[in-house]
TrEMBL record:
InterPro entries: LysR_HTH_N (IPR000847), Molybdate_resp_trans_reg (IPR051815), WH-like_DNA-bd_sf (IPR036388), WH_DNA-bd_sf (IPR036390). The lineage of its organism: Bacteria, Pseudomonadati, Pseudomonadota, Alphaproteobacteria, Rhodobacterales. GO terms for molecular function: DNA-binding transcription factor activity. Residues 31-91 form the HTH lysR-type domain. Pfam families: HTH_1. This is LysR family transcriptional regulator.
């Protein structure tokens, strides 16, 4: 009988970059930016993440205020509908965050694998 691995999912890092007491970007804000780029809408991006409309707009407002240029530009709704797009700065910040995340994962693959190997084994069934 073939046994399933005890811990099939490899460990992964969830990286939060803190710039000061209140300014940070992490996996949630990065995902929100990605979903805005995909959907063309802050509300839809938030909905996709199970987030309220108000919370999604607050997070985008925080991100826009943190950086030297807005990361997301939005247009009001109306007959043609509203929308939102990532600016060039938004694409750059998102790419830089993902690069830091990737480099941290690669640099720590050995220690992560050793930590993973030390997890308690699941009991045999």
């Amino acid at each position: 009988m073939t046994r399933m691995p005890e811990h099939p999912d490899p460990p992964r890092l969830r990286l939060r970059i803190v710039f000061g007491e209140d300014e940070m970007i992490g996996p949630g804000k990065a995902e929100l930016l990605e979903r805005v780029a995909q959907t063309g809408s802050i509300a839809a991006a938030g909905r996709d993440m199970g987030m309220s409309y108000k919370r999604a707009w607050q997070l985008i407002g925080t991100l826009n205020a943190m950086f030297d240029a807005p990361l997301v530009e939005s247009t009001r709704g109306g007959p043609g509908g509203g929308g939102a797009v990532l600016t060039d700065a938004g694409h750059e910040v998102l790419a830089l965050y993902r690069a830091v995340e990737h480099e941290a994962t690669v640099a720590n693959s050995g220690p992560l694998a050793r930590l993973h190997a030390k997890l308690k084994k699941a009991p045999r069934q």
